[in-house]
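Problem 3 from the worked examples.
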Amino acid sequence: MQQQRFRNSFVASILMLSCIAISSAHATLYTGSGESGFAGAVGASKMNWTDDGTTVTVNFTKGTSGNFSDSFVLYFDTGVSGRNAIGTLVNDRQDTNRSAISFMEASTGKILTLPAGFQASYAISINTGFGGLWSIPDTGSIGNNGLGFVAGVGNPSSASEASFNFSFNLSDIGLTPNSGAEIKFVGTYLNPFGGDGSLGFASNEGYGSGFTGANIGQNDFTFSGSPLSYIASVPEPSAFLFGGLVCSVLGANYIRKWMQQKSA
């Protein structure tokens, strides 16, 4: 009897895992710049992106040698008009997150140039105090509160937390759910109030190409090469039908055998 119960539990587990494997969403892993000017929390980090067709969830695992003590920014290109540079016209210093998106105080005259053809229309900024998503107006000057707050995304509870999740809806960045939309992105890691005059100081840690062995500091920076890219899921009717068929057959066969054993 005990062996039979074990066998039943084993079969049920296999059935459940088979169904989960069939229906699971794809995942894409990204790694940081490999640099460690701010001790490596972002430079040696990894991001695992997944989505269910509607919501993108990112598992961020920091590098083991440093704490997540500053601000991490991801700029998004969603295929609409945006900005190819975050320069002196973008100067929203209302809070830490907005300041990080703005790169540095306008008085420094420094510019963050994004990859060729990249149009930043949204940005995520995360620190231990808050993580959020903001829209970036594509023209004109952007002063305090000029970046449009969209939604909170999540943040680590402490600088030493090994990993944390943040998430956002595709519709929040103007993309149609379940459409296989592409999100291009690059990332920076900086102290928006560091450096001379507390006007901002950027590390050599981030996501994308062009980072070197020295921190950006209070200087211009230009991303090189192509941005990173994530393709959201598209539900495939054939996959759902196949998954449902397999699970139904496995389930029916298991129940039939269980009934036969019970009546024997």
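Problem 4, a separate protein:
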Amino acid sequence: GTARATNGTNNNNIYEGDFKDGKAHGGGIFKWEAGEAYDGQWYKGLKQGQGVWRGNEGEYYIGEWKESRTHGKGIYVWSNGDKYEGEWKNGLKHGQGSDIFKNGDVYVG
């Protein structure tokens, strides 16, 4: 089903979306009290599939997730304006990608 719920340990964290067996499952948005937010697909309570994460300092990631880690193709933009576009594995840059720096420098590898 679909519901709105607060986190049991912190009632200022809010999840709105699909649930299965008491966990986020399907599409949904989780907003943390500190200002972070994730809008995307969930699987058994973990970020899985396509999603957008926004940090509380202006950084963000748009792309694929696996077991709540950046995994697959995605774009990460740091709060200083630097950007990485490419492949990720288990939360780390992995494979082909481009670092695009705010000052205009580009590294492709």
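Solution to problem 4. The domain at 2-108 is CATH 2.20.110.10 (Histone H3 K4-specific methyltransferase SET7/9 N-terminal domain). The chain has one domain: 2-108.
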